[in-house]
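Newbie here. two chains, one complex. Structure please?
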Amino acid sequence: EADIYQTPRYLVIGTGKKITLECSQTMGHDKMYWYQQDPGMELHLIHYSYGVNSTEKGDLSSESTVSRIRTEHFPLTLESARPSHTSQYLCASTNIGQPNEKLFFGSGTQLSVL
Amino acid sequence: QQQVKQSPQSLIVQKGGISIINCAYENTAFDYFPWYQQFPGKGPALLIAIRPDVSEKKEGRFTISFNKSAKQFSLHIMDSQPGDSATYFCAASMKAGTYKYIFGTGTRLKVLA
């Protein structure tokens, strides 16, 4: 059912490397989100977008950046990865005003920074 | 004001029992309260949701009870099954403004066979 895809599924990388986590959805959704999920399960909103060329920072401060050049694509970039960035990153999307609001989540990217 | 407080953090229930997870919120502007279910290695998926104009919503074995005056809502899983073992998140959002979804801290449910 879910047409939202995240790649890579797992990423192990060294400190200082630049990384981009990909998120794409084929549902034409306006709103997209990035959540960081810590080992304690809690979901923290780090970025969101209302549509093309619209991005906002979420409630949890993050050193990552995002872009929304196309409706279907919402990549997250870390310019210089650090061990503190190790976490699960979840991308989600939804449409404004749908009768039964539903966030569609990707399966996540598990990032480990050594 | 933006927090959603969820309890318990973990829950163990016998097969056939009732699982109850509670959430509380402060911001009265919230107007949509979904519950999400997450299995290991997967993203959360919408389970059931309620709006504040009703006090209860039932879908199969899953029921949301909503108490607007107390600013609390809960998920009841009747006849709990081992396949229900997952992490459950309550959430809240509002149509006006940012459309942000605020999630609770999650409850790890284990249903014993």
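Moderator note: The two ends of chain B are 40 Å apart (CA to CA). Residues 4-112 of chain B form a domain with the Immunoglobulin-like fold (CATH 2.60.40.10). Thread marked as resolved.
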